[in-house]
Amino acid sequence: MQRQLIECVPNISEGCDLEKINLIAQSVTQIEGIKLLDIDPGKATNRTVITFVGEPQQVIDAAFLLIKKAAELIDMSKHHGAHPRFGATDVCPLVPISGISLDQTAEYAKKLGKRVGDELGIPVYLYENAAQEDKRKNLASCRAGEYEGLKEKIANPAWIPDFGPSSYNETVRKSGAIAISARNFLIAYNVNLNTTSTRRANAIAFDIREAGRIKTDAFGKNSLDDHGQPLRIPGKLKAVKGIGWYIEEYGIAQISYNLTNIGITPMHLAFDESCKAAQERGLRVTGSELIGLIPLKALLDAADFYLIKQARSLGICESEKIKIAVKSLGLADLKPFNPNEKIIEYLLKDSNKKLINMSLSAFADETASESMAPGGGSIAAYVGTLGISLGTMVANLSAHKAGWDNRWKEFSDWAEKGQTYKHTLLALVDEDTQAFNQIIEAFRMPKTTSKEKSLRSQAIQEATKYATEVPLKVMKTACESMEVMKAMVKIGLQNSLSDAGVGALCAKAAVTGAYFNVRINAKDLKNRQLADALLAKAEALYQQTLIIENEIISDVNSKI
């Protein structure tokens, strides 16, 4: 069963006092199982975005401690900053990461809200997917009037808090209120301008954001509908909120966006449209700034967007794509951008030792050591990885060849196929060793009683089956990957024929090595019907590989 994980992204109203910020952020680590991912302070906004993850109950326990500590250390009656706010912990959204739905996450948000209101005496407004009435779904509505208008707001029968006091007492004066929600992943994203004018930054924000701007008549008065409500001219992009502001820390104006659904409006589209709108107004976008964390896919999609504009292959490696996205979006314009600190998947990577994270020399040393793993199966998978990497290289070189500009998409498609095979084979390097380790663990199980012996025997057979299926996956993937090398020998850059040929030899070696592992593991399976079926698949793949290899080598020899 998939582990339930929730991300929590509290925004606290302190961006200058690093000692306070760290005390508040580190409070979450008191809860076992919580991983603090990011602390992102902003001086001009006097606001810090904190990000941590864990299982649902752990997350709301940690969030409660953070909210409590923020209320102790931050006095809202003395707070000033460029960002809208109404509380010491201004907002506390919960975001489902894995194994849990948005509706389930909303129930945890309500549970947290009740505890904050009851135990800390802080007014709580539930918004977005945790909202208990439609008018409270929008954070801007809940926070309207900000801290300065809070005394009147909580006394208004229409805006009584969902939890906590509805009277303005000394605790509320100091802590302010808090908005708690469950929502999908949101990207807080600022676009930098070559101006100091907040008014001009706002004009661009109104061009872009979904809410647009209020329509005015020839005399500058607001145009109203039949119900007396202001008419609006919608902006260009859906699922985008935005305002303009001046950041004294950087000496520039920015457009501050919240991208509430990057499936509708991705980051690169918001940036691209901002560039166009700025140019139309005689301004220039100089770069952008990411607040908090970002999903890996958002940066890879941005890279693909700009690679397509450049008519370049999309089949380059992940690290190169990230570099292109960072450069294209100007994410290092104001300060260095470290992908390992900003991409959520990188921060959540398993910290356990992995073969594929080793250097070449360390991997060789580990293989040559007295340990039985990694063994032939992992090496076969890695040799297959090297083979398809060579085939992918030829595809990328072909896509970039002068005079072949009209064929870049053809070779890009082959390179993308190659990258998919490469990622699969890389994962199988570690999976094969894990499969071997499962056999060892099964043999170490106790065997004193008849029940223990039965469980041990069953575990050994399950582990052996798995250890047979993994090299079969290596065989299948390495064999299929040869389509890339075969195509590159026929239509790719002819100066790289030898590279494609070596790639094919590596793929064949991977298939052969994995074939040995299937056979040696299958002989220990008691279920001979299953063993025969696995061996038949392996034999067919091996024979198919020999045919493909002969075709490729024959083509290479005829063309060199």
Task: Please explain how this structure is put together.
By secondary structure, this protein is an alpha+beta fold. It has three domains: 5-182, Formiminotransferase, N-terminal subdomain (Formiminotransferase-cyclodeaminase, Chain B, domain 1); 187-347, Formiminotransferase, C-terminal subdomain (Alpha-Beta Plaits, 2-Layer Sandwich), CATH 3.30.70; 355-559, Up-down Bundle (Four Helix Bundle (Hemerythrin (Met), subunit A)), CATH 1.20.120. 52% of the residues lie in helices and 14% in strands. It contains 18 helices and 13 strands. Strands 1, 2, 3, 4, 5, 6 and 7 form a seven-stranded mixed beta sheet that branches. Strands 11-12-8-13 form a four-stranded antiparallel beta sheet. Strand 11 and strand 12 form a beta hairpin. Helix 9 packs across helix 10 and helix 16 packs antiparallel against helix 17. The chain is globular, with a radius of gyration of 29 Å.
